[in-house]
Amino acid sequence: MAKKITAILLAVVVIASSFGACTNSSQEETVTTKQTTTQKETDDVSFKLSYTQGDSLDPFKAASENNQILADLVFESLFDLDEHYEPVANIATGYEFVDSKTLKIDINPTVKFSDGSSITADDVVYSVNEAKESEAYASSLTCIKSCYASGNSVIIALGYANPFALNLLTFPIAKQGGNDNGFPVGSGRYKYKTEGNKTLLVVNENSDFNPYITTITLVNIAAADSIDNAVNIGNITYSFKDMSVNTTKRMSCAKKAVDMNNLVYVGVNFKRGALSNPQIRKAISLAVDRQTLVQSAYSGYAQAALSVFHPQFTGVGDTTLFSENSDTATAKQTVSQTGYNTKSLTFSILVDDNDNKIAAANLIKTQLESAGFKISVEQTTSANYQKRVKAGNFDLYIGEVKLANDMCLNPFLTAKGGVRYGIDLKAITCDDLYYKYLNSEEELGKFMLSFYDEMPYIPLLYKKGLICYSKAMNGDMQGYYGNFFSNIDTWNFSS
Fold this sequence. Notes:
Elements: E1 48-51, H1 65-74, E2 79-81, E3 87-89, E4 92-99, E5 102-107, H2 121-132, E6 144-150, E7 153-158, E8 190-195, E9 198-203, E10 215-220, H3 224-233, E11 238-241, E12 254-268, H4 278-287, H5 290-297, E13 302-304, H6 328-338, E14 346-351, H7 355-370, E15 374-379, H8 382-391, E16 396-402, H9 410-413, H10 430-438, H11 444-454, E17 457-469
Parallel strand pairs: 1-10, 14-15, 14-16
Antiparallel strand pairs: 2-3, 4-5, 5-7, 6-7, 8-9, 9-10, 11-17, 12-16, 12-17, 13-17
Helix pairs in contact: 4-6, 5-7, 10-11
C-alpha cells in the first residue's frame, strides 16, 4: 500500500514547459495492551473520530465531509498525491499514456480487499463510474469520458489531452457488489465493524498494516461547532476543518495547517466599462497585496497565489506571475497608459456573508483606492450573491473555487465552467493557448504570458485547511489534505 513509508514514488511524465485537550476518556476505559511476537503495545480504546450516522459510509454516496474523510482509512486509490501534487503508486503498479487522450493503468494483482478477495480491473472500472456520479468526486472527474477493463489493466479515455490526468485517480477503489456485514468493502488500513451499538474501524487483517491504534471508535457528531468542542475536550481525537469558518482562536487542541486547492480570486465583469480593458484588470492585480490578505483576512491560513497554479504544484516548474506584495506605483502607471480618467474607475466589490471574504474585500478596497480607483463593497446574503454572480450583476466579486488535483483551469476558461462568470471568452486568447499547451502544441510560457496580459480573473490566494488533534497523542503529525492519516501507524498514546 502506498500510504506506508515504503511506498514507491512513480515518476510522472509531464510536459515541463509542459487534525485538544488531553483525552478525557471515562475512568472505565483503559489502554488495552496486546502482546505480540514483537511485544508491540497496542491501543483499541483511545482513538476516536466523528462521523455522521445519518449519512452513508459508502464513499460514493457520502455527502458529509465527516464520512468522506473516513474513506481515507478504509479505501485505497490507484494513486496518492504527495504534498507537491506528485502521484505516488498505490493500487496501480504502472501506467502508460497510449496517446494524449488515452491512459492505461496496470493493477497490482497482489493487493486484496479486506474480505480477502483480489482487486480486479472490473472493480476499478466500477469505482471510476461510481466516482464520476458521486457528490464528492464528480466535479473533478469531468476529464474522464469512459473506461473499460483489459486483462489486469484499465483503459481510461480522456475528454481532452491532460498530462496531469494521473492526479485525478485519487478516489477510493471499492469492491463491486461488496458487502461486509452491511458495510462497503475496501482495501485500506482499516475496515468498518459493528460491536453492539457502536460503529468501529478495526485493522484490516488482510493487509500488512501493524499500527499501535488497532481500533477506532466512531462518534456520531455532525455539526461543525460540536466537532470543534469535542476535539477541545477530548471526546474525539482528530478532525479536519476546511476553514470555511475561521474558528482557530477557540481551538485549544494541537493543530497543523495543510494546503488545499481552494483558490480565492477576484472575478471581473468584462462588460462593465473600463473593466473590459485588460490593462485595467492588470492594474487591479498589481495593486492587490496578496500577503496582507493572507495574514490579515485569513489569519495566516492561506498561501499567496503567485501563479495560475498552486504554489506546491511542482509539475509545471516555476510559473511565478504575481508578487506577494502590492506594486501601487506600477498599477498607477498602467492605468495612466490606458488613457482612462480616474473618475471613470469607480467599481463595487460584491461579497457574500463569509467573514474572511468580507475582510479581504475591505482590504482590497483600500489597496485599490491607493492606486486611484474608487471602490465600494457590497455585502449580501450567500443566496443573493450566487444569484447576482450568475446573472453577471456585478463589477468585481470575491470568489472561491476548489480546483481539481490536476489544477485544471476549465472552471474559468470554458463556456460551461462553474466560475466563468464575467469573462468574455471571445475577448481573450489564453484559453486557446491553455488547451494547446495541454495537447503539446504550445509552450507553457506562452500561455502564462497571455494570461498575464489578458488577466481574465485575478488569483489572490489558496486557503489552508486545519488538522486538529488531541494533545495526548504522540507522534509526528504528517497528515495532509487527501492523505489525512498518512503516518497513523506511528501515532500512539504512550506516556
